[in-house]
């Protein structure tokens, strides 16, 4: 009875829940393009404004109409506007020491203490204006246009804010606009500097005038990266990346394209070349890091059945030049890596090493239409060292991904990993364990089929008694 | 009850293997289901040592089974006819011979196992070492299984011989002829095993 009544309510609730999840989903798509607008005031009128709705980002019109107009309508007060270059709501969680009950706000300590002492506050999320809009500047322009008192811009590098020099008319609104300096150095340093500026501005405000302080930013600090190959609704997560932080020296990407049917992509997070002299008396070894170095020339040649990538590096550190030819054997169903030939010329103060080598890789063949990926390929082993010069040159890749045929959409296809789910040692262990458990099972079967002799058992006969003499 | 136990164990192992195979097939990784890869990537040492282990262990199991079958008959028959005890030790010796074949083959196979440098090996060296591994595994199975069934067979025949001898002394020699034929099959296994392992060698040279 209870269950049936629950069921009747349940369908409505489920529909509503699904709808709200859907809406939050859609809204969260825009989550990364929001900029927080935070306002707090010594008066409590902010409580009367429409509250912030979770997941909702205000359009500029709504922000102006619902919130900024009300702020401007209050006389007389001091409106202080802080414009930061980049800010996201996530920055507060990351740098604001929020997981500590007694925290003072971390790198936002002055913000937190000022908001705590304010009579009312609001945290809103605003949409970015149409490109190339800068949200903070737009808010500033709107307020400057409508405020009836004076507008006092504050210079950036001020460590002491002088407002006592200027007369503040006590019956009008005034706008103090502080453009916080853009980020230099690490994020923590710039946030700390902004915190100090905010603190000193707030401290220097005259106490007798009511104030409303706004903190907003021109752009969000975290941008979402949308992968082109994923359907926008089916991928539930975004990669939130710091847009400025791609460092070209941490990977090597070689795109050797001759035409649409002959192209080789090679990617590695680490490329290094080991050169050694195999003298017994004075052994010498050196490693040259080629990660992020653009090769002097990269050419690809396609014949039927083979694709060859020729790379030349010159003048990298002590390595005068390195010529590398990486051949791929391609047939209709699969492609595989052939023997790599190297020719190198290395000169340093101690040694000159010159030679040519051939490396034989031991990778399985990859089906066509797939790339090959290996995180720690340890199979480029030199097998024929140059015996005349007694030298050795080995190239190692880490995080290698390579595809010589069937490149489509300008990106790597699905990767054939060099390490599968069952590796060879796992299979060996499984086989031996199965044999041993078979032996165990056989033994158990034998033991459990042992029977005691019951031919002469007679339940009705006389029981045997054995007298034990002490 | 034991049927459920063994059926369950076999079923579980088989189910897991089928599950893995179907997963590979359905996720577009069918190329990974590769016996060739399995045979060329697993170490030849595993195969060789499995062969050695199987040789000695299966031979000993066969010999033991035979001895206990014959032995219990001799002991039982010897209660009423004590004259059979010494003569029927021949059956025990035939069973023991099977174990001796096993240990000789195991020692011969052990001498063949040598270390080799897998990473640096040329193609011919790897080929020779893998062939040695597989040959030793095959020889181990050959010798082990042959001796296993030979031992069981000699044991049952010997048991019959002992009990017949207890009844009628002239029957022993006739049944001994059957036992000799039974014992020869173990020898066949050893001969084939020797041929299998005679031409293989492991090491960095081959």
Automatic annotation (TrEMBL), chain A:
GO terms for molecular function: ATPase activator activity. GO terms for cellular component: proton-transporting V-type ATPase complex. It comes from Branchiostoma belcheri (Amphioxus). The gene is LOC109470682. It is found in: Membrane. PANTHER family: V-TYPE PROTON ATPASE SUBUNIT S1 (PTHR12471:SF7), VACUOLAR ATP SYNTHASE SUBUNIT S1 (PTHR12471). Belongs to the vacuolar ATPase subunit S1 family. Residues 268-404 form the V-type proton ATPase subunit S1 luminal domain. This is V-type proton ATPase subunit S1-like. Its main location: membrane. The keyword Transmembrane helix applies. One of its GO terms (biological process) is regulation of cellular pH. Keywords: Membrane, Transmembrane, Transmembrane helix. The keyword Repeat does not apply. Residues 420-458 form the V-type proton ATPase subunit S1/VOA1 transmembrane domain. The chain crosses the membrane at residues 426-450. It is a single-pass membrane protein. The lineage of its organism: Eukaryota, Metazoa, Chordata, Cephalochordata, Leptocardii. Signal peptide: none annotated.
TrEMBL record, chain B:
Residues 50-109, 137-195 form the V-ATPase proteolipid subunit C-like domain. InterPro entries: ATPase_proteolipid_c-like_dom (IPR002379), ATPase_proteolipid_csu (IPR000245), F/V-ATP_Csub_sf (IPR035921). SUPFAM superfamilies: F1F0 ATP synthase subunit C (SSF81333). GO terms for cellular component: clathrin-coated vesicle membrane; proton-transporting V-type ATPase, V0 domain. The keyword Secreted does not apply. It is found in: Cytoplasmic vesicle, Clathrin-coated vesicle membrane. It is a multi-pass membrane protein. Gene3D superfamilies: lithium bound rotor ring of v- atpase. Keywords: Hydrogen ion transport, Ion transport, Membrane, Transmembrane, Transmembrane helix, Transport. The chain crosses the membrane at residues 6-26, 47-68, 88-113, 134-159, 171-195. GO terms for molecular function: proton-transporting ATPase activity, rotational mechanism. V-ATPase is a heteromultimeric enzyme made up of two complexes: the ATP-hydrolytic V1 complex and the proton translocation V0 complex. The V1 complex consists of three catalytic AB heterodimers that form a heterohexamer, three peripheral stalks each consisting of EG heterodimers, one central rotor including subunits D and F, and the regulatory subunits C and H. The proton translocation complex V0 consists of the proton transport subunit a, a ring of proteolipid subunits c9c'', rotary subunit d, subunits e and f, and the accessory subunits ATP6AP1/Ac45 and ATP6AP2/PRR. Interacts with IFITM3. Belongs to the V-ATPase proteolipid subunit family. Proton-conducting pore forming of the V0 complex of vacuolar(H+)-ATPase (V-ATPase), a multisubunit enzyme composed of a peripheral complex (V1) that hydrolyzes ATP and a membrane integral complex (V0) that translocates protons. V-ATPase is responsible for acidifying and maintaining the pH of intracellular compartments and in some cell types, is targeted to the plasma membrane, where it is responsible for acidifying the extracellular environment. Proton-conducting pore forming subunit of the V0 complex of vacuolar(H+)-ATPase (V-ATPase), a multisubunit enzyme composed of a peripheral complex (V1) that hydrolyzes ATP and a membrane integral complex (V0) that translocates protons. V-ATPase is responsible for acidifying and maintaining the pH of intracellular compartments and in some cell types, is targeted to the plasma membrane, where it is responsible for acidifying the extracellular environment. This is V-type proton ATPase 21 kDa proteolipid subunit c''. It comes from Branchiostoma belcheri (Amphioxus). The lineage of its organism: Eukaryota, Metazoa, Chordata, Cephalochordata, Leptocardii. The gene is LOC109466639.
């Amino acid at each position: 009875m209870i269950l049936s009544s629950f069921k009747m309510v349940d369908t409505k609730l489920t529909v509503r829940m699904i709808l709200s999840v859907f809406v939050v989903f859609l809204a969260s798509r825009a989550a990364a393009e929001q900029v927080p607008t935070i306002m707090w005031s010594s008066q409590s009128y902010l409580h009367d404004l429409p509250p912030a709705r979770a997941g909702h980002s205000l359009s500029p019109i709504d922000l102006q109409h619902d919130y900024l107009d009300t702020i401007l309508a209050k006389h007389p007060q001091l409106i202080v506007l802080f414009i930061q270059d980049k800010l996201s709501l996530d920055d507060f969680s990351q740098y604001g020491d929020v997981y500590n009950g007694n925290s003072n706000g971390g790198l936002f300590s002055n913000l937190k203490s000022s908001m705590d002492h304010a009579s009312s506050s609001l945290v809103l999320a605003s949409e970015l204006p149409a490109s190339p809009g800068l949200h903070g500047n737009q808010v500033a322009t709107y307020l400057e246009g409508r405020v009836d008192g004076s507008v006092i811009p504050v210079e950036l590098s001020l460590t002491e804010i002088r407002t006592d020099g200027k007369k503040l008319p006590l019956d009008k609104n005034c706008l103090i606009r502080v453009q916080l300096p853009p980020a230099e150095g690490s994020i923590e340093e710039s946030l700390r500097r902004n915190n100090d500026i905010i603190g000193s501005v707030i401290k220097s405000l005259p106490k007798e005038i009511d104030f409303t302080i706004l903190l907003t930013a021109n752009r969000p600090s975290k941008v979402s990266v949308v992968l082109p190959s994923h359907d926008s609704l089916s991928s539930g997560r975004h990669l939130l990346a710091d847009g400025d932080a791609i460092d070209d020296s941490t990977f090597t990407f070689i795109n050797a394209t001759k035409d649409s049917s002959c192209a080789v992509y090679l990617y590695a997070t680490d490329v290094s070349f080991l050169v050694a002299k195999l003298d017994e008396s004075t052994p010498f070894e050196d490693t040259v890091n080629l990660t992020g170095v653009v090769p002097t020339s990269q050419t690809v040649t396609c014949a039927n059945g083979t694709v060859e990538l020729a790379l030349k590096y010159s003048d990298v550190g002590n390595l005068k030049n390195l010529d590398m030819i990486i051949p791929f054997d391609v047939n209709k169903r699969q492609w595989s890596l052939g023997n790599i030939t190297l020719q190198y010329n290395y000169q340093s103060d101690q040694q000159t090493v010159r030679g040519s080598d051939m490396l034989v890789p031991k990778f399985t063949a990859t089906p066509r239409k797939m790339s090959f990926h290996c995180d720690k390929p340890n199979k480029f082993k030199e097998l024929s060292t140059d015996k005349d010069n007694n030298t050795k040159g080995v190239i190692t890749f880490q995080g290698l991904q390579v595809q010589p045929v069937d490149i489509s959409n300008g990106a790597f296809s699905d990767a054939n990993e060099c390490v599968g789910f069952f590796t060879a040692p796992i299979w060996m262990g499984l086989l031996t364990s199965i044999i041993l458990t078979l032996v165990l099972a056989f033994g158990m079967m034998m033991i459990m089929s042992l029977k005691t002799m019951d031919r002469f058992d007679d339940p009705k006969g006389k029981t045997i008694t054995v007298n034990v003499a002490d | 009850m034991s049927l459920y136990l063994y059926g369950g164990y076999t079923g579980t192992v088989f189910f897991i293997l089928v599950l893995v195979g179907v997963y590979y097939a359905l996720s577009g990784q069918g190329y990974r289901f590769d016996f060739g890869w399995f045979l060329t990537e697993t170490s030849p040492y595993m195969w060789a040592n499995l062969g050695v282990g199987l040789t000695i262990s299966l031979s000993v199991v066969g010999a033991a089974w035979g001895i206990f079958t014959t032995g219990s008959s001799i002991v039982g028959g010897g209660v009423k006819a004590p004259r059979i005890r010494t003569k029927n030790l021949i059956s025990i010796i035939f069973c023991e011979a099977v174990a001796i074949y096993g240990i000789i083959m195991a020692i011969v196979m052990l001498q063949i196992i040598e270390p080799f440098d897998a990473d640096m090996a040329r193609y011919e060296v790897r080929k020779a070492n893998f062939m040695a591994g597989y040959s030793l595994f095959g020889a181990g199975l050959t010798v082990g299984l042959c001796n296993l069934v030979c031992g069981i067979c000699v044991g049952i025949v010997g048991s019959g011989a002992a009990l017949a001898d207890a009844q009628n002394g002239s029957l022993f020699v006739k049944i001994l002829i059957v036992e000799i034929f039974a014992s020869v099959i173990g020898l066949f296994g050893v001969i084939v095993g020797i041929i299998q392992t005679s031409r293989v060698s492991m090491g960095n040279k081959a």
